[in-house]
Sequence to fold (94 residues):
Amino acid sequence: MLNVRRSNIEIIADMLRVGNNGNGAGKTEIMYSANMSYAQIQKYLAFLMDQDLINKIQVGNPSIKYHVTDKGNKLLKNIEDIMEMLGLEEGIDF
Fold:
């Protein structure tokens, strides 16, 4: 198997999966679960919020959770459907 970097779409899907548990997820949880650096998480969270794919919810002081929106759930479902159709559920193995 080749050492293949994840695409932006795969990273976004990983982030949406983490925040799609009903309770949302904190930044640290998303960062570790999606195997991202702090710089990456900052960039991707800003993008996902700008696209209305996640919402930032204040749940305490200073606790913040990120919740997947309906639009984000729809995108995640579409990404997973495409990956399944292409046989890429387990990752790319050329």
